[in-house]
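**User:** You know discrete backbone vocabularies at least as well as I do. Would you mind producing a protein record, from residues through to fold? Write it directly below this note and I will take it from there.

**Assistant:**
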Amino acid sequence: MSKFYPLSVSQVRNETRDTIAVTFAVPPELRDSFAFQQGQHLTLRTHINAEDVRRSYSICSSVQEGALRVAIKRTQGGLFSTWANDTLKAGIVLDVMPPMGHFNTPLDAANRKHYLAFAAGSGITPILSIIKTTLLAEPHSQFTLFYGNRASSTVIFKEELTDLKDSFMQRLNLVYVMSREQQDIDLFNGRITKDKCAQFLQHWIDIKDMDVAFICGPEDMMLGVSEALQEAGMAKANIKIELFAASIPKHQHKPRALDVAGHQETEVTVIMDGNHTTFTMDKDKESLLDAGLRAGIDMRYSCKGGVCSTCRCKLVDGKVDMDVNYALEDYEIARGFVLSCQSFPVTDKVVVDFDQAE
């Protein structure tokens, strides 16, 4: 799972002025490796000006399509997204890591559920995969989507969403929320906030009818919507959140005052692809990921911000402090999973296993 594979781009399609949909050609011998679940993401790698640049992008195709496609929105100052939007075309080869992520819930054809989703901007990408896959896999289930944008011209996958609505008229409820374009119903004007979500719950949907909610967009929007849903009675365990690295502020690690009862250094063992590699590092000064890279290990990572979960591994021995965590659920942490990009060792010995991460 830690390996990158060279995949050729088979198609690049403009979705909006600043967003492209990129489809990869997966050779037969790699189809099992690149089989995915709805809501998962790909880590892409290329070299830009001799720099190794990696980014994670959510898959936007349904499981049933048999196509591997991601959307890349140009972000201001974004090195990879700018390069991709300006450069990518059919035939170009990118290094791609197999699909990862847990932004989904198990599906069953016998289910009769009503799913709820809130997306803003490019947050529609994994949500689209989830909606399409779910409506095809569960013929008795329904989906309600609130999708926030500035204006109609910035709606990503607008045609695809329209086609989806036409195909599932009775089972898909699609609501657009515009912040800079006036709509007839005032409730659907403005940004998706906690208060706006509370209004939706009061006037538009009954939370008691909803089984699972998916939220993807800017951090403040997602936290606000999650709070509104919980205050209305939805269990936190039924609320799935996916955060994009571009939407969080940069975090600077501040070393803690350590009780130096043991050594100042930590012996770290990394288990990856069946190999055991051991190195030493100072306690609480740099992350396991950065120290591993410095030691020459081809560590698995993408965002380095505690968001994408690409660097997820299991803590087998020792203790670490995690600075920030936007990717792991409480139950994953309870089972011993950590994000190596945010993990700072505080014991004399630490063992982490990437092979148990999937």
